[in-house]
């Protein structure tokens, strides 16, 4: 069981260098990823990026006298529960990545020790011809699905326009907020325009279907901090809701577009897997 899990989703967080840095990860062979496999030579590099140190939204260091986290539970407004079940706290008080070794200890670019919760809205529509008919792929004989993709400002990779769940925030609010900020640039709109936009999308974002809930193979993951997400599909079946709104990149995105979906997709983290599951749900071309 362990082998299946880390082969599928523990790859991008074991690349040579940690995300957005020149910090080299300690090399972890695939068969040494699980914690229950002995790895006596393992000497991971310690890295917590200066951009997260001391930030009000980030945890203090482990060992700080004022930092008394409630692991594996709701800690005030901070959710320290993992979708993977209870994670282990080592003898020094550090939470351990539930999938295994990554070659880096510390928090890296992440704000929280343990799970860092995000939400990913997968907004889809059917690709249409100029005559407003569904476009069918000739090989699969199935309709082509499109999704709203953003190009991340930090890595340049294309991704689902998601983001972090703020303390005390419900996932449903995060999904709508992140989509509006990254794909519709709501932050730059005036209050009246922003309220009108939010009102027009209210019903749409109340009718999503869960695609995935769990660990994310994110390049920012470390042995002690990792990303988890809830990915939910919101489908604009006839293109009359989101399909009519002009997409405008904002916040952490430098570009945005409706992207055709097929098996060649290469997206940030394991977002391609979320999209593949969405395609299967709609019986669309892959």
How would you describe what is shown here?
By secondary structure, the chain is of the alpha+beta class. Helix content is 15%, strand content 23%. The protein has four helices and eleven strands; from the N terminus they run H-E-E-E-E-E-E-E-E-H-H-E-E-E-H. It has helices spanning 2-9, 171-183, 191-201, 271-282; strands at residues 45-48, 74-75, 78-79, 104-108, 114-126, 145-152, 158-159, 163-164, 209-215, 225-236, 253-260. The strands form three sheets. Strands 5, 6, 7, 8, 9, 10 and 11 form a seven-stranded mixed beta sheet that branches. A hairpin with a 5-residue loop joins strand 6 and strand 7 (158-159). The radius of gyration is 20 Å and the shape is globular. The two termini are 27 Å apart. Mean pLDDT is 92; it is low at 1-8.
């Amino acid at each position: 069981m362990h082998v299946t899990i880390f082969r599928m989703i523990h790859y991008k967080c074991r690349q040579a260098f940690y995300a957005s840095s020149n910090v080299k990860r300690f090399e972890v062979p695939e068969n040494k990823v699980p914690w229950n496999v002995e790895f006596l030579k393992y000497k991971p590099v310690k890295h917590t990026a200066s951009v997260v140190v001391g930030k009000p939204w980030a945890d203090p260091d482990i060992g700080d006298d004022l930092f008394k986290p409630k692991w594996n539970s709701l800690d005030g407004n901070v959710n320290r529960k993992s979708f993977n079940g209870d994670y282990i706290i080592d003898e020094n008080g550090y939470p351990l990545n539930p999938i295994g070794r990554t070659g880096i200890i510390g928090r890296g670019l992440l704000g929280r020790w343990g799970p860092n919760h995000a939400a990913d809205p997968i907004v889809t529509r059917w690709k249409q011809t100029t005559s407003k008919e569904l476009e069918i792929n000739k090989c699969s004989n199935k309709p082509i699905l499109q999704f709203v993709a953003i190009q991340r400002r930090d890595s340049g990779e294309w991704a689902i326009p998601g983001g972090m769940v703020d303390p005390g925030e419900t996932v449903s609010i995060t999904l709508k907020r992140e989509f509006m900020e990254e794909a519709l640039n709501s932050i730059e709109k005036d209050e009246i325009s922003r309220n009108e936009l939010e009102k027009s999308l209210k019903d749409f974002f109340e009718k999503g279907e869960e695609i995935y809930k769990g660990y994310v193979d994110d390049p920012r993951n470390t042995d002690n901090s990792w990303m988890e997400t809830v990915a939910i599909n919101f489908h604009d079946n006839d293109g009359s809701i989101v399909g009519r709104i002009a997409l405008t990149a904002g916040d952490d995105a430098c570009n945005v577009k409706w992207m055709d979906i097929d098996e060649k997709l290469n997206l940030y983290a394991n977002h391609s897997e979320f999209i593949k599951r969405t395609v299967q749900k709609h019986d669309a071309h892959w």
